[in-house]
Amino acid sequence: MSMINELPRIFCSAYEEYKKLNKGSFKTIMESGSEDKSALSSLLIWSDNRKSLPYLAQVGYAGKVQMIYADPPFFSKSDYKAALKIRCADGKNKNVKVHAYDDRWGNDISNYINEMVVQLFAMKELLKDDGVIVVHLDWHAVHYARLVMDEIFGADNFINEVIWSYKSGGSSSKRFARKHDNLLIYGKTPQYKFRAIKEKSYNRGFKPYRFKGVEEFQDEKGWYTIVNAKDVWEMDAVGRTSSERVGYATQKPEKLLKRLIEAFTDEGDIVCDMFSGSGTTAAAAVKSGRRWVCGDKNPMSIAMSLSRIAGHDSSYKVIKEEDAASGIGEISAAYENGVLRLTGYTPATVEDVDSDSLKIVNETAVNSPRDLITYVSLDTDSDGKIHKNRYDMGSAEGRMPEEISVQALKGNKIHILAADVFGNFSEREIEI
């Protein structure tokens, strides 16, 4: 049976599933910064969306999110791996490949569309009346997304289909190279918030027009005017040599998210991304002065997100659905004269890696264990309850140091919360 005939049945079935969603049971595992009790806090959520989205709606975020960025699986029928860089004993970086996410859906597009509809209805609940949603897809399923989003958000609330054009990716002798993604943008209502982004528009032949009343400029390329940005964005993807690269499959560039955030939100607004992946949205939101709610069911994504927002002056909580689990590593540390030394780390069993990758992990654990650590947070006055992040650092900006200068009063307890590159978490408490 053709999909055009199947769509109404899939849509109705998915809507019934959405109405029966139940929020998960969550616990706070970390608080960072001085929380403003009068405002909804930024959140990093470790959970499946079917539990975290209804939870958010019921604890106060319904109708409070200004922009949702959704970068879900694309129905590529692939199983994605992250290529994580680990420094080896010889001083060289080597890639260890580990499972990131499965985008196969039983090779059945109806399964994919069903989940898309369920989650889009749940996301719509969170949007403010002047909010927008951006769904990031490509040629595999964007045509189906356009149909179901017209139904859920209303065809009249369609704003743009932005084409993100990039250079990376493969080519084929059988077709034009597929080197763009599609960003479908809808408002919850016709009264959405928007700020036009400006860009250069080069004159024909790069020569001056000298039209009356038209201001022109010149750079090394030629003459140009300043215009409102068009709906085709030429922007580099996160390449192999990019300083942003954290190794997560299908990582998106911060520049892309910053442009969307600038266009559709103001400082202090809430930006939401429940397919957090490599943590790009949280990183872009923090740097743009926005609050954020980001989530993922993969603990590796949670670790990467923490690594990328570490050291920034922001207030947020990290919460975890009770059923969410990861491996538990074992970290060793010592504190003396205001210096915390990471003396050792034993990772949890790393699954779904080949023998060569496992050899690299084991050698690194022996010779340079801190190079497996991607994030460290210190609570310098632990009460044994919720970890209060008073100092943190991540390896996203470079190698994790062996020694950390941090002050703690005699008689206090330092609680260490650490994550490794695979998303395994570990804790250690030291008495001063």
TrEMBL record:
Residues 65-299 form the DNA methylase N-4/N-6 domain. It comes from the Bacteria. Transmembrane segments: none annotated. Pfam families: N6_N4_Mtase. Keywords: Methyltransferase, Restriction system, S-adenosyl-L-methionine, Transferase. InterPro entries: DNA_methylase_N4/N6, DNA_methylase_N6_adenine_CS, N4/N6-MTase_EcoPI_Mod-like, SAM-dependent_MTases_sf. Belongs to the N(4)/N(6)-methyltransferase family. This is Site-specific DNA-methyltransferase.
